[in-house]
Amino acid sequence: MARPTPSDPAPVSALWQDGWYRFARRLPSPNFGPRPTAAPIDLIVLHSISLPPGQYGGDEVQRLFTNTLDWKAHPYFEQIAGLEVSAHFYIRRDGQLWQFVDCGQRAWHAGVSRYRGRDNSNDDSIGIELEGLEGNTFEAAQYETLSSLCAALAQRYSIEQIAGHEHIAPGRKQDPGAGFEWSRLQRDLGWPTRCFPEGVAQIQEA
Fold first, then answer.
1. Of 61, 142, 143, 171, which residue is least crowded by CB atoms under 10 Å?
2. Domains of the chain by range and CATH?
3. Which helix (H) or strand (E) holds 45?
4. Is the distance from CB of 115 to CB of 163 less than 8 angstroms?
5. CA–CA distance from 9 to each of 49, 66, 113, 122, 162 (Å)?
6. Distance between CA 49 and CA 65 in Å, rounded?
7. How far, in whole angstroms, is CA 162 from its chain's centroid?
8. 13-22 long-range CB contacts below 8 Å, 24 or more apart?
9. pLDDT above 70 (res 1)
10. Distance of alpha carbon 201 from alpha carbon 183, whole angstroms
11. 163 by DSSP, 3-state: which?
12. At 170, is the secondary structure helix, strand, or coil?
């Protein structure tokens, strides 16, 4: 499959330091591991997250991904106590971008998953969390940051597909949900329909 073309090309060396994106705030997570030998990095997986659910603006997500969240600080946290997870990136409501795991490494964001004939999507994907609640809408600043990040990822890695957590773990996960505008992201990126989950995109291939 031919790779999507970045919508706003820039020199790769200006965007990346190894697997770290230069325009993200770096906060390394201990929750990662090596990818399987020869595993491609060709899938972007989008998620939504907020802690506690529906509350925005705090540092709880960063603390979750770095194993420093106080499980007793909110009743909801007791339900996820001891959870060790991470994503490569996190986009705040104002568009601020954080990175927790080197993109060359395997972050722990997908869980039990399968997409287009492959199991274990953590092996071949880059995970991006959007601050939000599944089913709700997202902010313009988040789409702007997301599209720039996806374009940069396509320059650095062999990205061929982008999907939601709901598409790689159907029935188990529902994020980012109905409030996420796939057609908007596709329009911003200019990537063809084949790069997106079936039924969510609009631009047909020439």
1. 171
2. 12-29+37-58+85-195 (3.40.80.10)
3. strand 43-49
4. yes
5. 29, 32, 31, 27, 19
6. 11
7. 9
8. 15/152, 15/155, 15/156, 16/152, 16/156, 18/102, 18/104, 19/102, 19/103, 19/104, 19/105, 20/99, 20/102, 20/103, 21/89, 21/97, 21/99, 21/103, 21/149, 21/152
9. no
10. 5
11. strand
12. strand
Q: Which residue has the tokens 């200006």?
A: 14
37-91 per-position pLDDT tens digit: 999 999 999 999 999 999 999 999 999 999 999 999 999 999 999 999 999 999 9
| Site of tokens 């989950």 | 197
User: pLDDT confidence of 3, banded at 50, 70, 90?
Assistant: low
Looking at the DSSP assignment, which residues form a beta bridge with residue 114? 119
pTM of the model: 0.93
Asked whether the beta carbons of 130 and 46 are under 8 A apart, the reply is yes
Q: Is 91 within 8 Å of 146 (Cβ atoms)? A: yes
Under DSSP, the state recorded for 76 is: G
In the set 60, 78, 129, 134, the catalytic residue is: 129
**185: which DSSP letter?**
H
d(CA 169, CA 116): 12
Q: Is 177 left (phi over 0), alpha (psi -120 to 50) or beta?
A: left
Known active-site residue 198: no
Task: Evaluate whether 65 touches 101 at the Cβ level (below 8 Å).
Answer: no
Q: How far apart are CA 64 and CA 77, in angstroms?
A: 10
What is the number of other CB atoms lying within 10 angstroms of the CB of residue 20?
Answer: 16
